[in-house]
UniProtKB/TrEMBL annotation:
<feature type="transmembrane region" description="Helical">
    <location>
        <begin position="140"/>
        <end position="159"/>
    </location>
</feature>
<keyword id="KW-1133">Transmembrane helix</keyword>
<feature type="transmembrane region" description="Helical">
    <location>
        <begin position="72"/>
        <end position="88"/>
    </location>
</feature>
<keyword id="KW-0812">Transmembrane</keyword>
<feature type="transmembrane region" description="Helical">
    <location>
        <begin position="12"/>
        <end position="31"/>
    </location>
</feature>
<keyword id="KW-0472">Membrane</keyword>
<protein>
    <submittedName>
        <fullName>Uncharacterized protein</fullName>
    </submittedName>
</protein>
<feature type="transmembrane region" description="Helical">
    <location>
        <begin position="100"/>
        <end position="120"/>
    </location>
</feature>
Length: 163
């Protein structure tokens, strides 16, 4: 186990965790299951539905523009997670790997990634508005806040980037 942590980069591990979250919980199958089988008025149901936020899909009755925006949002969550994990200095400034600052840097990267992915993709939707962009960014930040701890845990013990 110590050998694998020695070579694990924090941005790589966090991005892999984000990719798995988006692929599994953003899939059309999970989104349909969460919508049909969870109670939005319970904490567990709310969280299970929140996991489906960066939903991606292949087909729908929506316009191509809306489908593209949803798919791009899911891709941007993963790409921006890597970017922010690489750029945030928390794990770089920590005296030792695996510290609480590394956990919070991973978590914060996911909050920023969700917010910016939603903000950017709102601009390509049908009838975009500034209010809609702000509300979407809030939804993305909410997703990152309540799910980002998973990314924070994934980044623990990894080195920051190039050695």
């Amino acid at each position: 186990m110590a050998l694998t942590n020695r070579y694990k980069s924090a941005p790589g591990a966090g991005t892999l965790a984000a990719l798995i979250l988006v692929l599994v919980f953003g899939s059309p199958w999970y989104v349909d299951w969460a919508r049909d089988n969870t109670d939005p008025d319970s904490a567990g149901g709310w969280f299970l539905r929140l996991l489906a936020w960066p939903a991606w899909r292949f087909d729908s009755s929506d316009s191509i523009q809306e489908i593209f925006a949803d798919d791009l949002r899911a891709i941007l969550v993963v790409v921006l997670t890597f970017l922010f994990l690489y750029l945030l200095p928390g794990s770089q400034l920590a005296r030792a790997r695996g510290t609480i600052s590394q956990f919070f840097a991973g978590w914060a990267a996911f909050v920023f990634a969700g917010a910016f992915a939603a903000l950017f993709t709102t601009l390509i939707r049908t009838n975009p508005s500034l209010l809609g962009a702000f509300q979407a960014a809030g939804d993305g930040a909410e997703y990152g806040l309540f799910v980002g701890w998973i990314i924070g845990i994934a980044t623990l013990g990894g080195y920051r980037g190039r050695r």
